[in-house]
Every structure is written in C-alpha cells, then in structure tokens.
Amino acid sequence: MSAAPITFFNRITRRLETEAVYGEGFLRFTYESPLGALPLHSLVKRAAFSSWYGSRMDSPASRAKIAPFLATYDVDTSEFAESPDSYHTFNEFFYRRLKPQARPIFPGENVITFPADGRHLVLPDVAACGDFFVKGTRFDLHALLRDESLAARFAHGSMLISRLCPVDYHRFHFPCAGTPGPSRLINGPLYSVSPIALRRRASIHWENKREITLLHTPVLGDVLLLEVGATCVGSIVQTYTPGTPVEKGAEKGYFRFGGSCFITLFEPGKIQFTDDLLEHSRAGREVYARMGDVAAHALG
After folding, report:
1. Given 62, 117, 168, 183, which residue is catalytic?
2. Best CA proximity match to 125, nearest among 27, 270, 289, 299
3. Is 236 buried (19+), middle (13-18) or exposed (0-12) by CB count in 10 A?
C-alpha cells in the first residue's frame, strides 16, 4: 500500500508542508488497498452514507467532538464570529462564520480572489492538461459541465481548483463582482476529493455530485462557479440570491460536514494566475491560500 504524504506549498508560511489528513487511515485503506474497493463501491461513495454521517454531525452529541478537533488541528478560534462554546452541533461549528477582518478581500476590479480557504491547483489551459493527477489523464470538461455549448466555450479556459479539508473554513465566496444566475444540480456519487483518492481515480471531479452557477461579470465575461460534493458532505447550501448583483468576496454558500471542492472556470484569454500558483501547479503541487487573497489578474 502506498503511503506517499500529501505535500503543499503554504503561501502564508512560504514553506512546503505536509498535510495532516483527517481520517487518513480510512482514506488510505479505502482508496489504496484492494480490500477497500468493496466498502468504497458498496457504501462510501453512496449519498446514503454521507447523509447518515452528516446526520450524526447534526446531533447534539456531536458537540463533544468540537474541543478535541480544535486541539488536534490547532484551529485559530480568534477568527470565529461566535464563541466556540456557542455551537450546538459539530456541523454548526463546521460551517461557522468568521469575523469580516479575518478574511480581507484584496481590492481592485482586475484582481480575482480565491473563493475559499484551501489547497489550490490551476490549469492555465484545460485542453492542454494531459496529466491531471494521473499521467495521461485529461480533465473531461464535457463530463464536468454536462452542457455541450459551455464545454465548447470554456474548452481552452483557465481553471482554479480549490480543495477544502475538514479543518478549513467551509463557506465559499464570489471571486469577482458580477450577477450570478441560478445554480444547476448534477447528481453523482460522493467520492473523496483528497489527492489520496485522486491518484487512483482522477475522474472524481467530473463524477461527483456538483452544482454549477454562471456569473456574468463586467470585466471577465462569464465565469463558471462549481461546488463539488464529496464523501460525508451532507449538502451544498447556496445563500446568494440569483439575479442580484454581488461584490467580490460576497458569500455564495457553504458546505456541510466533509472535505469538498470549489472549481472556478474562466473563459480563454481572460486571466493570468499568480506566479506561485503556476509554478507549483506545474510540479503537481497545491498551494494553500485563504479566501480573499489574490489568485489571478484580469488581462487586457
């Protein structure tokens, strides 16, 4: 069984770091062991399993998990909008709000910010990517979008993949100003989006349950925003109002319990990602950065 650690570049500390994976033993057994294939396909990927686990995180008894979680993962409670003692369930803690000053939004209409806290990977040209997590695997945009017209428009677009771990802040935000349309649900299984799983099944992003929103912007044209569910994500909750203009950094929604993923897709020739994202993504390495920090700049 492979036990390769998950390393990433931390933009805040400017160091390469090793990820502390929540439930690592279970993930490695499920995705790296032949014996794990049976529970993976018969139970773990199914919505019923995630719904059951999510309901456990909504129970009053789950409140007892908060303090050990905070201690184990050294979560900064000074950022919380409410006291850690105020949460009645683990899920309330999980999709907590932060103080506005905890995530300042980088100004400038030509600046695109990260939509969520997490570990980020970029594809400057989706069509030119021939090694998506697994050598020789292309990112299947047609399967992801389930819309031939959109897939053609964004075929050579630029993609930002933001992976949220259970230890992260789990609300997601608009990376630029614009007017969002309604979200469209595409049902699917709920595989883990951890690199442990993606190294074995690179197609998870375009297989899992997901929601797609088209954001009309004055600077970048149309931008696609996708929330991708994963194992133990009970639901994706949208809090924005379709058709109402939003400012950069405005809240779009939140994930309930579990690791998850947010994908931002730009039309071709519209943006340039920051140098650190390009450098580390070429090496197959994610960059940890927080919502509101700079992800890219508009071209032209």
Report:
1. 117
2. 270
3. buried
Domain ranges in the chain are 1-300
Position 197 scores a pLDDT of 78
Is there a catalytic annotation at residue 156? no
How would you classify residue 21: left for phi > 0, otherwise alpha for psi between -120 and 50, otherwise beta?
beta
pLDDT for 232 equals: 59
The structure tokens listed for 61 are 């008894």
Residue whose pair of structure tokens reads 């600046």 in the numeric block: 111
Cα–Cα nearest to 92, from 60, 52, 47: 60
Q: Output the pTM of the full model.
A: 0.88
Per the structure block, which two tokens stand in for 172?
């997601």
Q: What is the pLDDT of residues 43-99, one digit of tens each?
A: 444 444 445 455 678 899 999 999 999 998 889 999 999 999 999 999 999 999 999
Catalytic residue among 62, 162, 183, 260: 260
Residue 147 appears among annotated catalytic residues? no
CA distance 171 to 293: 15
Q: Would residue 41 show up in a list of annotated catalytic residues for this protein? A: no
Q: Which of 173, 194, 280, 281 is catalytic?
A: 173
